[in-house]
Amino acid sequence: MTRTFENVSRRGFVAGATAMAGGLGFPAILHAQPAPVKVGMIHPVTGFVAYSGQQSRLGGTMAIEDVNKAGGIKSMGGAKLEALLGDSQSKVEVGVAEVEKMNEQGVAAYIGCFQSPVGIAASQAAAKYGTPFLIDVGASDLLVKRGLKNVFRLKPGFGVCVDDGIASLGALNKAAGNIAKTAVIVHESGEFGTGTAKLLASKLPSIDIQPKELIAHDNPTRNFDNIALRIRSMAPDIVMMSNYVNEYMLLARTLYQQKVNVAGFYSILGGGFNYKFVKEMPDVSQYMMDVNHWFNPRSEKAQALKKRVEATGALFTFEVYLTYSNVMLLADALERAASADKAKLIDALANSTFKAELLPYGPTRFVDGQNQGARPAVMQSLKGDIEVIAPEEFASAKAVFPKPKL
Amino acid sequence: MLDPGIIFAGVLNGLLAGGIYVLVAVGLTLIYGVLHIINFAHGSLLMLAMYAVFWLWRLLGVDPYAALPVVIPGAFAVGYLLYRLVIGRFSHGRDENILLITLGLSIVIDNGALLFFGGDTQTIDVPYAGSFVELGVAFLPLPKLISFAASLVLCGLLGLYMVRSDTGKAIRAVAKERQGARLVGIDVGNIFAVSYGIGIACLGAAACLLMPTFYVTPSSGHAFVLVAFTIVVLGGMGSFLGAAVGGFIIGITEALGGLLLGEQLGQIGISLIFILILLLRPTGLFGSRA
Amino acid sequence: MKRGIAFCLAGLATAVVFPLLAPNYLINIGMLVFFVAFIGQSWNIAGGFAGQTSFGHVVFFGTGAYTSTILQVTYSWNPWLAWPAAMLAGCIVGWMIAFLAFRAGLRGSYFALITLAFAEVFRILANSVPFTRGGLGMLIKADPRPMNFQFKDPIWFYYVALVLCVASLLIAWQLTRGRFGARLVAIRENEDAARALGIDVFAEKVKALTLSGAMCAAGGTLYVQKYLYVDPSIAFGVDKSVEMLLVTMVGGAGTIFGPLIGSIALTTINEVTRGLASVVPALKNVQPLSLVVYGVMLVLIVARLPDGLMGLFRRKSRHA
After folding, report:
1. Are B107 and C100 a contacting pair at CB < 8 A?
2. How much is the ipTM here?
3. C117 touches chain B (CB under 8 A)
4. Is A61 in the same domain as A132?
5. Which of A244, C97, C158, C285 has the fewest beta carbons closer than 10 A?
6. Is A230 exposed, middle or buried (0-12, 13-18, 19+ CB in 10 A)?
7. Pairs of residues, one from chain B and one from chain C, whose beta carbons lie less than 8 Å apart
8. Backbone phi, psi, residue A258, to 5°
9. Single pTM value for the model
10. Domain that holds residue A216
11. Among B130, B263, B264, beta carbon nearest to A257
């Protein structure tokens, strides 16, 4: 008994002495590591759009890793970012439950939610606590028109995408001698497709193209044969599409199989226009054009990230680099605010002039939560690859319009 | 407004689409007719079969049509075992419970697929996918024509089996009069499992015929099940012939509805038919008084 | 009986005190539990007590949600007034569907499927007509003051949901004691025998659906007031129908507390399994595992407890 006491006491003394010596000699080590900044990421990683949710999560977690590897938030003493991952299960109430749960865990900011309805409700819930909410993907303009000070959307809304798309189409048409006079718009029946289609229809006449018809379809759609028939009977010069990934691909395939000839396919926020589509269906996708979120092909960082993502076996889709860029935007704001205090962070975000290196945007400028510097890019599938054909300063190839007959 | 050529093409498209619907509906109606349950796991099992067809093509280079003799018996086995080991065993014979169990199964299968296969969309590219047959204004893609013909053949074979073979007769006996069948010595429990198996085998066939022109994701089976429900009700729940005829009627209605009313409202046409049939003639075209 | 009442009062007291001590996110979960229990109870009236299983109950939910939202947003009604209007709309839709379906003599699976079809029709209509703004959905302006049926503190939504849930329990309790409920049970057990006993089967079933529709519509309004946004898939998507059916059948259809027990069980399982997956570091997305576990638990519960979770209590009391 006494021996144990002595042993313990001796060990304890040695340990204590070492600690004290350490404390005296190395004060830096005794300084606690600054508390990590918690970043809540809410995405639909299960359910119908699980793929997109998982891609968003991939981009976000990679970005957080990168920020931490580069030393964290330096103005906060090297504080690291910590990801809180939430599954919205594509449901509004689950998304909001995650917001509440993460708030309990002391989250500093949220990034989410891919689907606009979930984003709308979740950001509203976050507004209660004054926590910044970064919308990484979500097309509805309702997201930024509610006068909420805590909502920030880095990517362009469909208003800007439509305007840029119309301008580029007008330029293309002019360069081809105004051969396109009519268009048919095929869109998904939810808020993204309907909103985009209506806006398109109202602006097409300004470039001398008449919208002949707006064809709405459900998600999911079993087959597009009848829509293809309708399109063929109307014989438009341009077919414009706004839908999600599977319907986009199926529609394109059906139109190709049914030999529907048009001067051009010009989609605005076409969900399926990505590397997988272009590589797996080169004949179907050849010459199709899309106005969409894209990375800056001239950015070295973007190309490097692309290689990293593809090395993990994943595709470099827009969800990945949009969420990645949002994390970077947040990190920049934290750096400038030198604190995770919500009011300071919102201020820093509101005044942000962050340059998203991966994206073809100008410097950030938020007005009512919408980044005015955001722009889509116009892409075309050429020779089994995706080239950016507009805007000029980011282009990697010249457009081919009209497309050759099938 | 629309010229007859387009209408004709629409009808043809509808027939081709109907071919697939028929297979999905026949399985559903068989399961309902014999087991008196609405199989909530139907869409998930279709998805599983479609993945099977996809992996056979991707890993072994098997053409989806050539995969029929493998996928059909495989699907039968899965269905049979699923019934024997899970559904039949856990439901204690109660209809509401079978419903919940098939619902639970669909959740497990859908998310299991998401977990193991990932969420990306997979497609099959067969070399003849671009070929088509031209009939006036109609461009009929070759794969859809093959699927249509194959579906007719398979349904015919299944029909023959149901009428001529002993098991087929036993199945029809159990569907008509469960207790009576038991009394004449039919192993009703086994027949239940066999029926479920055949229902899923139909899904296996449908999967092979769908994959050349459709795609698979963990949620892609459900799109076909809702329309299958409509067909089953239209044709008469439990009626094999009804499902077959109903499938083509719905296919054509969908096509014409889509052409004349626009795709969205055309889908309403299907639900409205559903409602009207139920209100005016609930036994459907060929069903018997329940 | 005395023990039962004491138990209920204790439960109620816990429910009332709980949000005063709990963090916000648990209050939110609590609200969801009572909300789902409430709409589950509405399903229970039709499906559990009257035995008319429906697969499309969300049609009432969505009717209520859109009615109160349209009245508020387009016609500037006060939401507290729009609420009873929404319930009335649910009543009318319930009556209409019941009238059509039961006049045609639909029963069992046929009735279940026609309700599904009605929900689909309503969803597509909601997507196509201008006064619902179609696929764009409708936003309620955030102005969290009690007179707008919006609350800054989630505790109030919790209490509203609790009140609704208790009200629904009382309605269910009344059904087990009164003649109307007895007639419904008679119809459930054997419709033809009930008719032979002189019960106006058609009228009773219609009444049940009407009541059920009104209740469910009330839930729809509460949902939109909380989340401030509605669109056709939120309002008429099949998920809510399944949820209502699930919590009731798992809890015990035709019992007073079935939907509540089911709601507590399933919400807890969902929360726990969803949280588990975020603890496991994302090795190429393991989140679906949470739902696999959820599905397995569902199958096991049904397998072990064919009478639903209430069967546990019943068995216990028999042995007590």
Report:
1. no
2. 0.91
3. yes
4. yes
5. A244
6. buried
7. 116
8. -90, 10
9. 0.89
10. 159-292+377-394
11. B130
